[in-house]
Design brief:
single chain; 185 residues; alpha+beta; Heat Shock Protein 90; 6-stranded mixed sheet; two-stranded antiparallel sheet; 36% helix; 27% strand
C-alpha cells in the first residue's frame, strides 16, 4: 500500500512534489498509468494548487504495478475529480478541515477510486437528477463531473456520488481491469 500526505507546509515547489513521488514510486511499484498521473505535471499542478489554497491531500493507494489500463481515461477521471474537490474545499472557511482524501485500490479485476472532500452549503440537483455547478448559471451541470461520468460509462464502470454531513464523495468502479504478470528483476 502507498500512503502519503501532501500538506501546505510540506510543499514549496513542483520539484519537491516530484521528488517525493519519485522516492515513493520504486518502493511501491506503482502501476504505470497511475504512476504517470502521480508523477506527471498534471498531478503536481493539483498538489501545488491545493497547497497554495491551504488544502491538504491524503492518499491511500493499493495498486499492482502491472495493471493493463489506458492512462488517458484514468488521468481524466482523477484530474476532474481532484479539480472539483479542490474547488469545493476552497470555498470552506478556515475553521473546517480542508482535507481531500484519495483512495485507489485494485482487487480481483476491479479498480476502485474514491475521492472525498468537505463542502459548504448544499448540493443543487437539476430536473435530470444531476448535480448543478455552483460556478455556472442556475441548472447548468458541471462539466468536470459529467466528463467523469462519460469516461467511466465508456469504460463500462459505475459512478456513485454521496453528499452527506458536509462531505462530498465520488466513488468510481472500473471492472475487468486485468493485471499482467509481474516483471521480475
Amino acid at each position: 500500500m502507498l500512503r502519503f500526505a501532501i500538506c501546505d507546509d510540506d510543499i514549496a515547489t513542483t520539484d519537491r512534489i516530484k521528488s517525493l513521488i519519485t522516492e515513493l514510486e520504486p518502493t511501491y511499484n506503482l502501476n504505470f498509468s497511475i504512476s504517470i498521473f502521480l508523477s506527471g505535471e498534471e498531478f503536481c499542478f493539483y498538489l501545488v494548487i491545493a497547497s497554495k489554497k491551504n488544502i491538504s491531500i491524503f492518499a491511500d493507494m493499493i495498486i499492482p504495478e502491472n495493471l493493463q489500463v489506458d492512462s488517458v481515461p484514468i488521468c481524466q477521471i482523477l484530474g476532474n475529480a481532484l479539480d472539483n474537490a479542490i474547488e469545493a474545499t476552497e470555498m470552506l472557511d478556515d475553521s473546517r478541515d480542508r482535507i481531500i482524501q484519495v483512495y485507489i485500490s485494485y482487487d480481483q479485476e476491479v479498480l476502485f477510486f474514491k475521492i472525498s472532500n468537505p463542502f459548504c452549503g448544499r448540493i443543487i440537483i437539476n430536473t435530470k437528477g444531476r448535480i448543478v455547478s455552483k460556478k455556472r448559471q442556475p441548472n447548468v451541470e458541471g462539466i468536470g463531473l459529467q466528463s467523469i461520468m462519460n469516461t467511466v460509462a465508456k469504460l463500462h464502470g459505475n459512478v456513485a456520488i454521496s453528499h452527506d454531513g458536509g462531505e462530498f464523495c465520488i466513488s468510481i468502479t472500473l471492472y475487468n481491469i486485468h493485471a499482467g504478470e509481474s516483471s521480475s528483476t
